[in-house]
What we know:
two-stranded antiparallel sheet, 16 helices, 2 domains, Farnesyl Diphosphate Synthase, Polyprenyl synthetase family protein, mainly alpha, globular, transferase, magnesium
Amino acid sequence: MTATVDSVRSRVDDALAEFMRERIYREKPLWGDAIAALISEYVTKGGKRLRPELCYWGWRAAGGSDTDSIIKAAASLELFHAFCLAHDDVMDNSDTRRGKPSLHRSLEKTHRDMGWSGNPTAFGRHMAILAGDLLMSWSDQMFQESGVGARWIHAARPLLAQMRSEVVAGQQLDLRIQHRTAPTLRDALRVIEYKTARYTVQRPLQIGAKLTGDASPGLMAGLASYGVPLGEAFQLRDDVLGVFGDPSITGKPVIDDIRDGKQTALIIIARELAGNDEREVLDRWYGNPKITQHSAKQVRQVITSTGALEAVENMIGDLVADSLAALEQTAAVHPDAKQELAGLVDRLTRRDA
């Protein structure tokens, strides 16, 4: 089979659907039909499947052949990601995820629909935390039972553990930066490195390569040099879309990041470059829960007029060049994978959602 981006994603979706059918069937008597269905839908509906895709191409980069076992191992990363998103949305008190109600909001609605007693908001939050814990456990099971040789599963586990530690570190750095009075660009970029670049791109690639049992030190280093700047550029693009994106495409209102006062590289640069009048607009409206569409437009105008948007676009361009150069210089990458990885750079950094 000649693998493509679309075919890999489709096979990951199929592997997740099959795994979830089996697990939900077993767990339904304990969780109940309504909640079990919500958990299943949360995993199987929507999402870019980026981490499984990169894990797959890390495997192919190391010369691995196209097999169902690597698809299953890669798909297990999506279960871990679902755990991260469920907990992240509780911490951020997010109402939506991928254009739909977040898991804790869906569980809150289930509580109301069922007419259960107690506080529906607390129920939704508590159950989403537990559902996330369950998905993390299932991620381990799917990885272990993927069909990849036990020796190579064992060899890849330290990288898997490191990926998990790094994303937790990134999350706590993100929480801390939101409570600082004057976070720096270095602070924001450190969050990006741990919460996105390593977790989303570098480690999935390296895990996939390690699972072949044939990943040279040069290849592992090359995948890191390619993956970190790509992951950073990916997150910077996400930050731009959070303020300037089309809600009908992103599935997220562009006012949310502005109202929540997210301390991204984009807003930190805007504050550094702003004059007195521009800073007054940012101070008044950025992070203001009473912000209107008109005032949000003013914030976007300031981000543009200060040159912050252009600065971030230039950063993305530089990071893309670094990523492509690292890929080109890594001779150990299998030619078939090199072509797909080069294409991924453009797709992840020049996107609308």
